[in-house]
Automatic annotation (TrEMBL):
GO terms for biological process: methylation. InterPro entries: TrmO-like_N, TrmO_C, UPF0066_cons_site, YaeB-like, YaeB-like_sf, YaeB_N_sf. This is tRNA (N6-threonylcarbamoyladenosine(37)-N6)-methyltransferase TrmO. Residues 3-145 form the TsaA-like domain.
Length: 226
């Protein structure tokens, strides 16, 4: 089977650090799907405007090393307990293929790059290759009441996020409006750290909208320091 990208994703994240660990966790996080030249035909999207959600099949392109272990350490288990790779959504897999459900915000039908799909809630890095797009169909894809294994027993706890007035002012001077700052706070509340790191004095950094966001985490509070 020969597989090649049909599109690439545009995201506020230029590296994988800080990206939400699942699609939908930061519902208002915006991104765009930009097609490769041979797929920039509006006919290929005909009827898409009638759907609310899409499935994206894509590549974990930032993984530089091939995964060989049959077990991984999911963040939801604290990053220390091991479970089988096929019982997780870990990005470190035998084949670097990701699957995400994203919400359609709107479709720009005429741009210099052909039709562009604007979506919300994605967990993809900037320039991520997309291999296929399929519509989300409620009667087939939704399973209310389904069990979620160990995830049901380990509820994700968000962090409290503190941004001082000085840092907030600087973010606005750098071009971030109130909406994008709120999205940043929601991203940070998901706790971007590797979950085996608990040093309250360590300063972490992540890219967002072309800026370097530096923060510390002490107990249950994340503080943006610059």
């Amino acid at each position: 089977m020969e597989i090649k990208p049909i599109a690439y994703f545009r995201s506020p994240f230029s590296s994988k650090f800080g990206i939400p660990k699942q699609a939908g966790l930061v519902a208002e996080l915006e991104g765009q799907i930009v097609f490769e030249p041979e797929f920039r035909n509006p006919d290929a999207l005909r009827g898409m405007e009638g759907f609310d959600y899409l499935w994206l099949i894509w590549e974990f392109s930032a993984n530089r090393h091939k995964a060989h272990s049959p077990v991984v350490r999911p963040p939801v288990l604290g990053g220390n307990e091991k479970v089988g790779v096929f019982a997780t959504r870990s990005p470190f897999r035998p084949n670097n293929i990701g699957l995400s459900s994203v919400k359609i915000s709107h479709i720009e039908w005429e741009t210099p790059h052909g039709p562009v799909i604007h979506v919300k809630g994605a967990d993809l890095m900037d320039k991520t290759p997309i291999f296929d797009i399929k519509p989300y169909v409620v009667y087939a894809d939704s399973h209310p009441g389904a069990r979620s294994g160990f995830v049901d027993d380990r509820k994700w706890q968000k962090l409290d996020v503190e941004i001082s007035e000085d840092v907030d002012r600087h973010l606005r001077l750098q071009g971030l409006n109130a909406e994008k700052i709120e999205i940043l706070k929601e991203v940070l509340a998901q706790d971007p750290r590797p979950h085996y790191q608990k040093d309250p004095h360590k300063v972490y950094g992540m890219p967002y909208e072309g800026l370097d966001i530096h923060f510390t985490v002490c107990d249950h509070t994340l503080t943006v320091v610059k």
